[in-house]
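Sample A.
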Amino acid sequence: MSKLAKKPVSIKEGVNITFENDTIKVTGPNGNLSFGIPTGVDVKVADGRVSVSLKDKNQEGLKPVLGLTRALISNMVTGVVTGFEKKLELSGVGYRAQTAGRDLTISVGFSHPVKITAPDGLTFAVDENIITVTGANKDMVGNMAARIRSIRPPEPYKGKGIKYKDERIRRKVGKAAKALGAK
């Protein structure tokens, strides 16, 4: 059994967990999240903790799923209480972003601005050259941040583009510097 699956998930104050037809629903101050429990996995709530175990101990293919199920439940509990956020940084001359309601408009050197609408449960915020994506669902926050980054990924020569706040871009030497070093 997974070492992670052995640790129970503690339920924080203000969080309600319910089960309906092999679906776990987590409700909290930041919203509602649900997850379909895989067949063969047993989830129990007792004493303010959620524990994950196998229904049949002899099934070999389900052991890796235990840690995944526990991690997803833990992320749902954390998401409905505190939420998740990803920060992206715009670097380049004339690169800017603006929010208007649920829409994010990004100008990154194309002939037209790129407009992205936030799905339900996500919000955008822009502060100078930093875009912040926040929401309760960790998967949706990460996918939306990756989608925004894919509009103009950072290039290795000048470092221009959209990158994660803590991402380090590996820079390459240009043609002129290579030619001088080759002599």
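Sample B, a different protein:
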Amino acid sequence: MPYYREPNGDYLYVWPRAWRPGLHEGRATAIAGLPTSVQTTSVSVLFLKECPRIARRDVPQEWLTAIGE
């Protein structure tokens, strides 16, 4: 799974296959900075351009747990 770091410092991941043109399905926070608010959401390709892709090992365990890993 591709993991990303949002501009606000939160982490997200997306399923690699787009489910609609320009959109992916993924897991991200509903409330910035609150890992327990992670939910399934749409993530636009344009937003992902603002988020550096990171390795799973660089995602803190608290976030991996919240994401469902």
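Observation for Sample B: The longest helix spans residues 61-67.
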